[in-house]
Amino acid sequence: MNSDGSGNTNLTSVSDGYCSWPSYSYDGTKIVYIKGESPSAPGTEQTSSNEIWTMGSDGSSKQKIYGEGNTYNLIFQRAWNSSDKILFMRTAIPLSPPDVWVMSPDGSGATVVLDSDSYTYGDPVWNNAGDKIAIIKGEETSQNVFILSLP
Amino acid sequence: MYTRVTGSGYELWIVNADGSGATKIGGGFDPSWSPNADTIAYTLDGEIYTISSSGGSVTKLTTQGGDNPAWSPDGTKIAYAR
Description:
The complex is a heterodimer of chains A (151) and B (82).
Chain A: E1 19-24, E2 30-36, E3 50-56, E4 63-66, E5 71-74, E6 86-92, E7 99-103, E8 111-114, E9 120-126, E10 132-138, E11 143-149
Antiparallel strand pairs in A: 1-2, 2-3, 3-4, 5-6, 6-7, 7-8, 9-10, 10-11
Chain B: E1 2-6, E2 9-14, E3 23-27, E4 29-33, E5 39-44, E6 47-52, E7 58-60, E8 67-71, E9 78-81
Antiparallel strand pairs in B: 1-2, 2-3, 4-5, 5-6, 6-7, 8-9
């Protein structure tokens, strides 16, 4: 839709399945999004995997770029930086704290940049220069926002 | 900008990049800055709203549901899920 709420346009339809978490490419010509099972309600177990897709910002040229079978993927806002790297999170099913990954827009070169280890991370977002991410780091009794430089 | 979860719901807060000056601007979650940083789109009660980044008046953009708002780089469009 337009930023004033007018001009609603469907980019995906029922036949595309459950699509969510859109994020524009840096140049605005494409959108990366999640296709697959909706997130489970709190307290229930996620049992279905999902995939990462891209399309033109007009809904054209839908293409699966990532989906590794028994995994659950998360896309957040500002996921696509000026160097054409897409930031996402991935975990296996049954769910464990997801790791942070980057990949190219065609799905190639997927690499872990932050292993969840003993922490729970969430909501990573690129800075304007595309060389750092801000991310939530959760610990036992609190969560805080951190900045991480990426090579 | 971040969401703070409280006993009564979700709150939107803005903080300087060095962690100082945390300011509550309203209720909601899934916040997304407009490219010029003047406006924030967010989700509340299953609909999408915008608010000035300095707080103030709220505009309801959707009436048939919506979440996950994401601004286009030129600030003219908002992609969302419904």
